[in-house]
Amino acid sequence: MARKRRSRYAPDQGLTTRMVTTMFLIGLLYVVFVGVLLALLRGAWPIILVVAGSLFIAQFWFSDKIAARSMGAVEVTPEEAPALHGAVDRVCALADMPKPKVAIAQSDVPNAFATGRNEKTALVCATTGLLRRLEPEELEGVLAHELSHVAHRDVAVMTIASFLGVLAGIMTRVGLYGGLSRAGRSNSNAALAMALIPLVSAAVYAISFLLTRLLSRYRELSADRAAALLTGRPSALASALTKVTGQMSRIPTEDLRKAEPYNAFWFAPAFSSRESLSRLLSSHPTLEQRLDQLSAISAQLAR
């Protein structure tokens, strides 16, 4: 049996450990949540099991496509976007990995993201705002960052994990509708379920939110490190980071709000520098942390 080829991206054991731990805890949380629904809404257990199973399958197979479509990604050919395709080709050649689908999102917010369960289903997307603002070397640095998410498979973990809160909300509504409609208003169990299930759903969302945030911050530093080592140009990635982050405060608030729900996927978080709460709950490390790491890598490469 042929051994699977690995890319030239530097492996990150810390990232792998965190991904395995996050997926285990997310899966455990999912099972506990379904169990609580079954216990509180005994009359609706067939509906809950069918919905839980269906949504889990849909989450695994289609969450990457849903995320890409939600962020406005439209696949483009080499003829439609020769500069972007050329940059992706060069990074893939450096990394010795298959070329993903290439897409552009019509948005002035300067950003990029990658989705996909594996290298075969991967898609990398840049916004028109990013393409207009970055120099070729800076763009390659950003794309190398995004493709490292694909190579390390952390993009698949984040895509799946990020949808748990949404699924919890859907299952809660379905369970309440199916169980309470049978139980009737006079049933004390129905009243108890009515009070407890929204609280359980909120707890599930909060825990999944914290788990994905902790993983997301580490994986962004890991992707910066892997991209800088692959391209050998940490200064180009640092320049791109500085440009993108500096431009966020100049983007209209309406555009930032549209992009903000998908911050866990973006190269840089979409919020203005004035929003301190957003920074506190950000899916990314601070700009200073990212630049300090790139500066250290630059010194390392110079030696």
TrEMBL record:
Chief subcellular site? membrane
Q: According to the UniProt entry, what is the EC number of this protein?
A: 3.4.24.-
Q: Could you tell me which residue ranges the Peptidase M48 domain spans?
A: 79-296
Task: Give its localization.
Answer: Cell membrane
Cofactor detail note = Binds 1 zinc ion per subunit.
Q: Which GO terms describe its molecular function?
A: metalloendopeptidase activity; zinc ion binding
Mind telling me which residue stretches traverse the membrane in this protein?
Answer: 20-38, 44-62, 155-178, 190-211
Name the cofactor(s). Answer: Zn(2+)
Signal sequence segment: none
InterPro entries in the record, alphabetically? HtpX_protease, Pept_M48_protease_HtpX, Peptidase_M48
Instruction: Please give the name of this protein.
Output: Protease HtpX homolog
Supply the gene name: htpX
